Amino acid sequence: MDNLGFGLERFDAIGAWRDLDHTGGRAAPVDDVGTLPDCTTFHGPAELAALLKDDPAFPACTVQQLFTCALGRAPDAGDRCALEDLEAAFEDSDHRFPALVQALIASPPFRMRRGEPE
After folding, report:
1. 82, 42: one domain
2. Does 43 map to a domain?
3. 75 falls in which pLDDT band (50, 70, 90)?
4. Which of 33, 40, 49, 104 is the most buried (most CB within 10 A)?
5. Which domain, by its residues, includes 101?
6. Is the domain of 45 the same as that of 73?
7. What are the CB-based long-range contacts (under 8 Å, 24+) for 85-91?
8. Model pTM above 0.85
């Protein structure tokens, strides 16, 4: 995760852009260079986004991770159709995250969340 995170290093804890890192009491230029598992190097969030957008696994992985985070559980076999619908909505929106969130909160697994077993 760290290598992907380096591409987002220019954003501070609340999402504001920064050019200097003030860690350790001194200011230093932000290092936003990262490397993907296939050894592709990128500089900053724009290059990272361009690389991820071209990765065929990106939409399904993003959908599954958001689903898991939002529902507090991993998808199971009964969620297959919902995941396919979410992935289609994400792709139809040109991979816009707000569109994915809207599709997720309108999905049956989110609206009809089941409780934990007794």
Report:
1. no
2. yes
3. very high
4. 104
5. 58-111
6. no
7. 87/59, 87/60, 87/63, 90/59, 90/62, 90/63, 91/59
8. no
